[in-house]
Automatic annotation (TrEMBL):
The keyword Zinc does not apply. PROSITE patterns: ABC_TRANSPORTER_1, ABC_TRANSPORTER_2. Gene3D superfamilies: P-loop containing nucleotide triphosphate hydrolases (3.40.50.300). Pfam families: ABC_tran. It comes from the Bacteria. Residues 7-230 form the ABC transporter domain. PANTHER family: ABC TRANSPORTER ABCH.1, IMPORT ATP-BINDING PROTEIN. One of its GO terms (molecular function) is ATP hydrolysis activity. This is ABC transporter ATP-binding protein. Its EC number is 3.6.3.-. Keywords: ATP-binding, Hydrolase, Nucleotide-binding, Transport. GO terms for cellular component: membrane protein complex; plasma membrane.
Amino acid sequence: MTSSDAVSIHDLQKHYVVGGETVKALRGVSFDVPVGDYLSIMGPSGSGKSTLLNLLGCLDRPTSGSFELGGVDVARMADDQLAETRATSLGIVFQSFNLLPSLTVVENIELPLYYSGRLGRGARERCEQLAKRVGLGNRMDHRPTQLSGGQQQRVAIARSLANDPRFILADEPTGNLDSQTTDDILHLLDELNQEGRTLIIVTHEDEVAERTKRTIVLRDGQVQSDKRRA
Ligand SMILES: Nc1ncnc2c1ncn2[C@@H]1O[C@H](COP(=O)(O)OP(=O)(O)OP(=O)(O)O)[C@@H](O)[C@H]1O
């Protein structure tokens, strides 16, 4: 790991024990992600992509191996430190949007500020700016069920930016969207990388991977290939 690495993982293993049987979902994964990188993670179903993303997103802990985020070893963090890191350094975008149906667009965008205790003065205005940034300035008081899939994903992207994280993770962010909407969402993600944020996207789609700077392919819980585009 160098100071210019956003992420450094070494020999990461994740085993699940189900009914007395051990599933080795990750079997020794190592790679570094420099600050500002735009990385896609591909691989067949069951190869360990979501497991890896859950670890990178501090949503789960590895069985063994090290994972450093911005120079800090996540595996050794206490639970409250892990929650703090998740809230302030990371933005996560999911395939199924994961918006709260009872909240409006702007309230959904504010949610990470609530969790990180940053709902202070100016928060509402900042979140309104984020809604405008993703093209939803005229939908701020709508609820998720009143929005299209693409609009809901825009809300999720705006929400991932609420704490201004350096690092954005996305799990199949366009998996539920049609091709025109997919293109709009990918354009937004490209912009986030162009402004210097580090992006890691799990995808099945070549169209998505081709826009990124580098693709890692997982197979059976290991890195099969790691290629950077010219
Ligand atoms: N919570 C869990 N408990 C037990 N086994 C799990 C759990 N999560 C994942 N697995 C197993 O770990 C392996 C890797 O799963 P993972 O979901 O990471 O793959 P994936 O590449 O994301 O697949 P997909 O593309 O189908 O989403 C699979 O064999 C899966 O059955």
